[in-house]
Specification:
alpha/beta, 3 domains, 3-stranded antiparallel β-sheet, 18 strands, 47% helix, globular
Length: 567
């Protein structure tokens, strides 16, 4: 892709890798680079510095947490979790269904709508940002409150708070919601390329990694980061297989990344200076079988902070000479420079083949559909048809594959087959006639009706008011309520998602689908005997009994836009 004259949005632009990527991009004369960082001063400082280095490029600063809604983007995570209103908002945004309000309120959607970038480069260490919320500490706090509640035979307010905090730190729902919003926003704004700079979580090392965050080896928190990094990659793998979406790539360094600066100064952890304390021999604490984290308090503050020589490795923090020497030794993490990562980013953007794109590697490494399976599929289907005839049953749907919409479509197609026979015969009947005939079939065909209701697919009669159902229904989904108030839009959405719908309006929709299929088949050139058409006249056989699976798959491909684009 040509970079010149394009708008490029860099997530994590102030960071070590982000700045290296921007400097390389600037050489290709993009129109504008939007630099996004967590903090306002970081984004503005980066843009000021970059403008001096490349005055011919426009640099625009943006800031805030991209994983939350815009109204919360500038708040520290602790402040959000300790505020009951914010905490509940986070839970709703992450755990409940994605709707227009959640999409348009999100930070990332706002940024993409505002700037409409042609290219997005994501150098945010998402796995670290989400996994290091530390669900395990949340678990221990929750366990403590549960014990208190059990001992006192009541629930405490603190227990409710800890439950909400625990739910708020679940990693997988957060990364899923992030990708949902990001992808929807890119589709809205017709982004061309999304390139992620990811992580392995362990700097390329294995489960024997000696650098941990606790006495446990390897640390569960560290492995959570790796797990999330893997989940993120596979979500991007799916995004890259979505029709009409951006080209999706991921560069995943498997080593430590260094360095940004070498200096002497104050040493900070989590943004705070390391205070100096002393404890002399006469003030030592005597150990007696029980260790207190609060300690005896007999230490002395030196009223000073730790100052030393350090190397700044960007997102991973600052290391001492000894730490840097140990971690970069051959046989340890070793390291890669941000400039080398930036070079690979540029090569991938302009169409080069670096061999380092993880999404492309997965595309080439996964085991896809095979010739043998395609060859044997016919035999499997024919055997199932033979057994259907032998046992006088119709194998329609069990609601095991899901979604309920598939079962609903298959049963409706089966009813059309029972009543009309062939695809061509469907359009010979009016909407009202089809509605009456299908309802008559439902009422008289006890076996079909019982099976549909029993797997959780209710039947909406053609008056639009009465529902045939069993003890459980798949749609609507029961969450935390036994009753749900609904309006006409919700009612129609439920019918579309998982009810056999006998109303005339649904018959009109089925006739429209059938017409599209017939028009497609009739539009095929009779003389063409090539491999050009995947689903040709021999596939549809519109004058033979309806094949319910073919109809359902056609709807999933064309109506629900569920086409598989890679094999």
């Amino acid at each position: 892709m040509d970079i010149k004259g394009k708008r490029i949005l860099i997530l994590g632009g102030w960071g070590l890798v982000g700045m290296a990527v921007i400097r390389r991009l600037s050489e290709y004369k993009p129109k504008e680079i939007i630099v996004i960082s967590l903090k306002e001063n970081e984004a503005k400082d980066a843009c000021l510095q970059l403008s001096q280095e490349a005055p011919e490029v426009t640099f625009t600063p943006e800031w805030g947490n991209i994983f939350v809604r815009r109204s919360l983007k500038d708040l520290p995570r602790d402040e959000i979790l300790n505020n009951p209103i914010y905490r509940k908002q986070i839970l709703e945004d992450v755990m409940e269904g994605l709707d227009d309000e959640k999409l348009t309120s999100s930070s990332i959607n706002y940024l993409l709508n505002k700037h409409k970038p042609h290219i997005i480069i994501d150098s945010v260490n998402s796995a670290t940002g989400l996994a290091y919320q530390d669900i395990y500490t949340g678990y221990y706090n929750l366990k403590k409150e549960l014990k208190k509640a059990q001992d006192s035979s009541k629930l405490t307010d603190e227990l409710g708070v800890e439950v909400e905090k625990m739910l708020s730190t679940l990693y997988i729902p957060q990364i899923i919601r992030h990708i949902q919003i990001l992808h929807a926003s890119m589709m809205q704004n017709k982004t061309n390329v999304y390139l992620k700079i990811g992580t392995t979580g362990t700097g390329g090392m294995g489960l024997n990694i000696p650098y941990t965050h606790s006495e446990e080896k390897p640390s569960r928190v560290l492995l959570s980061k790796t797990s999330l990094a893997g989940a993120h990659t596979l979500l991007l793998f799916l995004a890259g297989r979505t029709p009409d979406g951006p080209i999706v790539k991921e560069i995943k360094p498997a080593a430590a990344i260094a360095w940004k600066a070498i200096n002497y100064g104050e040493i900070k952890k989590h943004g705070r200076p390391v205070e100096l304390f002393d404890c002399k021999a006469e003030n030592s604490e005597e150990l007696s079988g029980q260790f207190s984290f609060n300690g005896h308090g007999k230490w002395e503050s030196k009223n000073d902070t730790l100052k030393s020589i350090y190397i700044d490795t960007g997102e991973n923090g600052i290391f001492s000479r000894g730490e840097f020497e140990a971690i970069t030794t051959a046989g340890q993490m070793e390291f890669v420079t941000p400039e080398e990562i930036a070079d690979n980013v540029i090569l991938e953007l302009i169409g080069g083949n670096t061999g380092s794109d993880i999404v492309n590697a997965l595309d080439n490494a996964v085991m896809g559909p095979t010739y043998r399976a395609g060859y044997m599929r016919h035999d499997a289907i024919e055997e199932m048809k033979r057994l259907e005839t032998e046992n006088n049953v119709e194998s329609v749907a069990f609601e095991i594959l899901g979604p309920p919409r598939l079962s609903k479509l298959l049963y409706e197609a089966q009813l059309l087959k029972n009543v009309c026979g062939t695809i061509n015969d469907v359009n010979e009947k009016s909407d009202a006639e089809l509605s009456e005939l299908l309802q008559k079939e439902v009422l008289e065909n006890n076996k079909l009706r019982v099976e549909a209701i029993s797997i959780g697919i209710p039947i909406l009669l053609n008056n639009g008011k009465n529902l045939l159902r069993g003890p459980s229904v798949k749609i609507p989904v029961q969450l935390d309520k036994n009753q749900i108030k609904y309006n006409s839009n919700q009612f129609n959405n439920w019918a579309n998602a998982g009810w056999i719908d006998l109303r005339e309006s649904n018959m009109e929709l089925w006739k429209s689908r059938i017409s599209d299929i017939v028009n497609y088949v009739n539009g095929l050139p009779v003389e063409d005997s090539s491999s050009r058409f995947h689903h040709g006249t021999k596939y549809w056989k519109i004058d033979e009994p309806i094949d319910i699976g073919k109809l359902a798959s056609w709807i999933f491909i064309f109506e629900d836009e569920g086409l598989r684009i890679k094999r």
